[in-house]
Design a protein that fits this description.
By secondary structure, the protein is mostly helical. It has one domain. The chain has a two-stranded antiparallel sheet. Strand 1 and strand 2 form a beta hairpin. The two termini are 38 Å apart.
Length: 492
């Protein structure tokens, strides 16, 4: 298996899908062929990612399936590989893309070819981020994903799509300028952009501070952390359903992955120095955005603010520098990628039928949509971190890790769990329970077969990870342990 360039195949297959789509004419009759082509290409990519996962050696903490080809020079190469930290994000990406395409079957009314091309291009960029073993290659994929997402929101979004997409683009691009300067500096100091080499290099304390801040400027906007989160609710509200799914499911995880891969391992002294600031910003994000979520009138905005709160747990866990913290942060990202994606899909289901996201416009859906109500319940309970769901595992490990570092921070973080339960259950009660008094809701239809096909794997994963997280922990642990060893080695 190691002889086969399987990671390059993961990158190239969506590009092949794009080429196939260009040869299919775009009209109302051929849209079915366009959708099926994109769906089968993305599904095949998911199967290939599972092949990578099943052939992954869980005991080896190093990069596997490594491919290296000279590119710009002998120091800047096309180098890809996966370890226990990145492999799960690759599978998450390939899992969500076909779901996004399937969810878009009926709600994209124009330019279907261009829409599908944008999604397949986005898949390539997202996979590229997680498999890159070269810093410059990572940066190109990291920033390249902005372009298709910019188009998805700006063309197929809501009424305020232009404002939202430019805000999203400018916020994320502005921060990334500093990261580019840091990447150039690191290349000139070390003489290579190879990530394995850079992980072993020890930067001076002053350089670490500057480089850490440069990377932080990019990651803090992308994840996003308070107070740089304001672009996210706007982007989610205006994005089409599938755009919100992929934005919450994968794109927010790029920065979390970057914190683990670069910030804490390459700049450990600076990471320890700035850790109290990260704790403070994370706690504020968890509590403040949860309180804001409580007063939202738009379903998408509420879920968007909850995403900021959940990402606060991720940054808390990463900067505890403990095995429980890093593992908890990774599982929290995986769980949030599944659960938040499912919640946005739930919003999309009722939006496609009634064409409004106002919470007050709903009520009593359990009388007409029992399957939908059950699915929505599972994801709401996972979002608030109920034991037995995927949301509990990550949050518990993070809270365990932060408790070992600072009891007061742990207490404040725990209040976020209580607030999450408050706004999540309030949302569910308003939409699902109560009297069915709205006339346009009395004839609303339950989940279609296509929607059931979308929700079933999401439900199984949500419950499966919650009940039995050991397989995921076994994949994560060796690489997480190696990460901590690298940090400890540089600190000593």
């Amino acid at each position: 298996m190691n002889e086969l360039p399987i990671l390059s195949i993961l990158l190239i297959l969506p590009v092949i899908g794009i080429l196939l789509l260009t040869f299919i004419s775009s009209n109302s009759e051929s849209d079915v062929n366009l959708k099926q082509t994109a769906l089968w290409v993305s599904f095949l990519n998911f199967i290939i990612s599972l092949v990578v996962l099943f052939n992954f050696n869980q005991l080896d903490p190093n990069f596997q399936f490594v491919e290296k080809y000279y590119w710009l020079s002998d120091t800047i190469s096309y180098q890809v590989g996966v370890d226990g930290i990145s492999i799960l994000f690759v599978v998450l990406t390939t899992f969500l893309v076909p779901i996004c395409i399937l969810a878009s079957y009926n709600n994209i009314k124009f330019s279907m070819k261009e829409y599908l091309i944008a999604f397949l291009a986005l898949e390539t960029f997202m996979i590229g981020v997680f498999i890159s073993m070269d810093l410059i290659l990572f940066y190109l994929f990291f920033e390249g994903g902005l372009i298709p997402m910019f188009l998805i929101i700006g063309i197929w979004g809501g009424e305020r799509r232009i404002y939202s997409t430019f805000k999203f683009f400018l916020y994320t691009l502005a921060g990334s300028v500093f990261m580019l300067l840091a990447v150039i500096f690191m290349y000139w100091e070390v003489g290579t952009s190879s990530i394995p080499v850079l992980l072993q290099h020890e930067f001076s304390y002053n350089n670490q501070i500057i480089l850490w801040l440069a990377f932080f400027a990019s990651f803090v906007v992308k994840i996003p952390m308070w107070p740089f989160h304001t672009w996210l609710p706007d982007a989610h509200v205006e994005a089409p359903t599938a755009g919100s799914v992929i934005l919450a499911g994968v794109l927010l995880k790029l920065a979390g992955y970057g914190f683990i891969r670069f910030s804490i391992t390459m700049f450990p002294d600076a990471s320890h120095y700035f850790a109290p600031m990260i704790y403070a910003l994370s706690i504020i994000a968890i509590i403040f955005t949860s309180l804001i979520a409580l007063v939202q009138e738009d379903m998408k905005k509420l879920i968007a603010y909850s995403s900021v709160a959940h990402m606060g747990f991720v940054t808390l866990g990463i900067f505890t520098f403990t095995i429980q913290g890093i593992e908890g942060a990774i599982i929290q990202m995986i769980s949030h990628g599944i659960v938040s994606a499912a919640l946005f899909l739930c919003v999309g289901v009722v939006y496609d039928r009634i064409h409004t996201r106002e919470i007050e416009r709903y009520g009593g859906l359990v009388n007409r949509m029992p399957l939908y109500s059950f699915s929505f319940m599972i994801f709401i309970l996972a979002s608030l971190g109920l034991p037995g769901t995927s949301g509990f595992v990550g949050e518990f490990l993070v809270l365990l890790s932060i408790f070992s570092v600072n009891t007061y921070f742990a207490v404040f973080a725990t209040t976020g769990v209580v607030l999450a339960a408050t706004y999540s259950l309030w949302l569910y009660r308003k939409i699902i329970f109560g009297q069915l008094i709205k006339d346009d809701l009395k004839d609303i239809l339950d989940l279609s077969f296509r929607e059931i096909v979308i929700f079933v794997p999401l439900i199984l994963l949500t419950i499966g990870i919650g009940i039995y997280p050991i397989p995921i922990l076994e994949i994560i642990e060796p690489s997480s342990q190696l990460t901590l060893e690298i940090i400890d080695g540089k600190m000593n």
